[in-house]
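This part of the workshop introduces the protein records we will be handling. An example says more than a description, so a record of this kind follows:
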Amino acid sequence: MDATLRTTLLSGLHDGSIVPYLGAGALADVVHKKKGGQMPATSEQLILAMNGGRPMAAKLMYEFSRAAMNVELKRGRTAVTRFLHDTYADREWSRASLHDWLQSIRPPYVIDINRDTQLLDSYAGSPHTLILGCARISGTSYRFKLYRHDGAVYAPILPDEADPRLPVLFKPMGCPRPHPSYIASDADYVDYITELMGGFAVPPFVKALRREKRYLLLGMRLNRDTERMVLSDLIHGAGSPAGWAMIADPTVKERRFLERIGIALIENSWSALLQAETLK
């Protein structure tokens, strides 16, 4: 990696001007300590894990949200929630090297579209704010759950109670802790993205925080509409350029999308950034 670009990225991650945006590839080296096997994170991995290791119909294998919708229609929404909770609440997963690296930096704002809890564990010993995406709930116009961590436990808070000085961990697709909340099926995504576009899935203090930020996409693939739409809205108000995406073998579709939203492509895996830091 070019030394000047590396310095720019590392400096921005440290001072908060660059926001890490984590995709499924961030968990590529996570394995179960007792059972073995990789943590399901990609769309295909999640579908196979949810279906007992067996492939589903081709049209359902296209994207996890489709497969989750199929399971929801046949067995109920709780079946999908239970699968995700059983998978990600398990404490026997190894640590991701990317999460260990980010923990040493402790960026003040991180977006993580995975549903695991490793990001929470990285900040567990100090105060921070946690945002979990949610969908299809009544009684509120918000599509997020907001918590303050005091260094020991989480407590729910209202948007105007958030301390803007604390690090912000944004998990738009949810996670098991402190209370399970997930965006998974097509119906979830339709509701969540609609409200995201309307401004109801991002707390007001984050809308102020994210102005002119730039983003570093790590472990993200952008071949599916749902992830592209979520990304486009979460980085609204980004600086120019909007950031960088580290993708080793980008597709034509990914190249076009990144060019359209103003994110520069770095044709390398995120591991190259860690290696560059190690070699400094």
The chain has two domains: 3-35+91-278, 43-88.
